[in-house]
C-alpha cells in the first residue's frame, strides 16, 4: 500500500551521508541529489542517516538541510526526513498553536494512526516540546472543539477485532437520538467517538445505517457550513474509509484557484510509507486523472520532484 520506492540494495549509511554532504558543498545546493537519497529511504534508514550524519560532520542533518534549502521544498524534505512519530508531533504542535476550526491534522493523527502510533506521537511531542499534546490542545482550542479534541488525542483505544454487536446497536440509537435533537457536542457522542475501538465504531456506524436507512454522516450534514459538524464527519470518515478521506483532502488541495501546499505536503509525507497507493487509486477513480499528473500540473521544480518521488513516480 506504500508508494515509497527503496533500492533493492540500499547503499551503506556512510555513503548516503557522504552524498548528502556533497549535495551541500560548493556554491549551489544539489537538490536532485538530496531527493535521490532521502526520498528513497524508509524510516529506519532515514533515522540511521540522521544519526550517522551528525557523528560524521558534527551537525544535525535537519539543520544542514534547513541551511541549504528553503520554502515549500524545505518543508516537504524536513517533514519527510523526520521519524513518523516525530513528524506527527510537529504537525500536531503547529495545528494546536494556530488552531482554527477547519484544521484537520489533529483529527488525522488521532483517527488514522494505530493506538500505538498515536501513543508514540504523544511521547515524541512530550520529548520535543516538554509539554503534553493534550495540554496544548486544551490551552489553544476552545468551546465544543476542545471538548471533542482533548479526549480524541488522549485516547488509547483497544486495537483488536472483537466487537460487541448489542453495544453497537444501542450506541447507534444513542448517536441517532442526540443527532436528531441537534445535540452534536453531547457528551455521549464525544464519549463514543473518542473511546471505542475502530472495529467497534465500524460496527456502530453499520448498525446506524441498518436501523435508520442512511449513513450517519448524512445526518451530520444538516448545516454544511458548521465546522463542528464537518469535524465530526471527518472523524467518522477517517475510521470508515481513510483512503477516501485523504483523497478528498488532496482533491481540495489541488483544486480551485490555488494549491494548498500545506495539505498536499502533509498527506503525501505522512502516507507514503503506509497507504498512499490506496489513496492514489481513490483519487484516480474519483477524478479520472492520476494523482501524479495532478501534482505535476499544480507544482514546480524541486517541490514537484520530491512529491512525485514519494508518490512512486518513475
From TrEMBL:
GO terms for biological process: response to cold; response to heat; response to salt stress; response to water deprivation. Ca(2+) 1 binds at residues 24, 26, 28, 68, 258, 296, 299, 304. The keyword Cytoplasm does not apply. Pfam families: Annexin. A pair of annexin repeats may form one binding site for calcium and phospholipid. Keywords: Annexin, Calcium, Calcium/phospholipid-binding, Metal-binding, Repeat. The keyword GTP-binding does not apply. Ca(2+) 3 binds at residue 298. It comes from Digitaria exilis. GO terms for molecular function: calcium ion binding; calcium-dependent phospholipid binding; phosphatidylserine binding. This is Annexin. Belongs to the annexin family. It comes from the Eukaryota. PROSITE patterns: ANNEXIN_1, ANNEXIN_2. One of its GO terms (cellular component) is plasma membrane.
Amino acid at each position: 500500500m506504500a508508494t515509497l520506492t527503496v533500492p533493492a540494495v540500499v547503499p551503506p549509511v556512510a555513503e548516503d551521508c557522504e552524498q548528502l554532504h556533497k549535495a551541500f558543498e560548493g556554491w549551489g545546493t544539489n537538490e536532485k541529489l538530496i531527493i535521490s537519497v532521502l526520498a528513497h529511504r524508509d524510516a529506519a534508514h532515514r533515522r540511521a542517516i540522521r544519526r550517522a550524519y551528525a557523528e560524521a560532520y558534527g551537525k544535525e542533518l535537519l539543520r544542514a538541510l534547513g541551511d541549504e534549502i528553503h520554502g515549500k521544498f524545505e518543508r516537504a524534505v524536513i517533514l519527510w526526513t523526520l521519524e513518523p512519530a516525530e513528524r506527527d508531533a510537529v504537525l500536531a504542535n503547529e495545528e494546536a498553536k494556530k488552531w482554527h476550526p477547519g484544521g484537520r491534522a489533529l483529527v488525522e493523527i488521532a483517527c488514522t494512526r494505530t493506538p500505538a502510533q498515536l501513543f508514540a506521537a504523544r511521547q515524541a511531542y512530550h520529548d520535543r516540546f516538554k509539554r503534553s499534546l493534550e495540554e496544548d490542545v486544551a490551552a489553544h482550542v476552545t468551546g465544543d472543539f476542545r471538548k471533542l479534541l482533548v479526549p480524541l488525542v488522549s485516547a488509547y483505544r483497544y486495537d483488536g477485532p472483537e466487537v460487541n454487536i448489542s453495544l453497537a446497536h444501542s450506541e447507534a440509537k444513542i448517536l441517532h437520538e442526540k443527532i436528531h435533537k441537534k445535540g452534536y457536542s453531547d457528551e455521549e457522542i464525544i464519549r463514543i467517538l473518542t473511546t471505542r475501538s475502530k472495529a467497534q465504531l465500524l460496527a456502530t456506524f453499520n448498525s446506524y445505517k441498518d436501523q435508520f436507512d442512511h449513513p450517519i454522516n448524512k445526518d451530520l450534514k444538516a448545516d454544511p457550513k458548521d465546522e463542528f459538524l464537518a469535524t465530526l464527519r471527518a472523524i467518522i470518515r477517517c475510521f470508515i474509509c481513510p483512503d477516501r478521506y485523504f483523497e478528498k483532502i488532496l482533491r481540495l488541495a489541488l483544486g480551485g484557484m490555488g494549491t494548498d501546499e500545506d495539505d498536499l505536503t502533509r498527506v503525501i509525507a505522512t502516507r507514503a510509507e503506509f497507504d498512499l497507493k490506496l489513496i492514489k487509486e481513490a483519487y484516480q477513480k474519483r477524478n479520472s486523472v492520476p494523482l501524479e499528473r495532478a501534482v505535476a500540473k499544480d507544482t514546480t521544480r524541486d517541490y514537484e520532484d520530491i512529491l512525485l518521488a514519494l508518490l512512486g513516480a518513475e
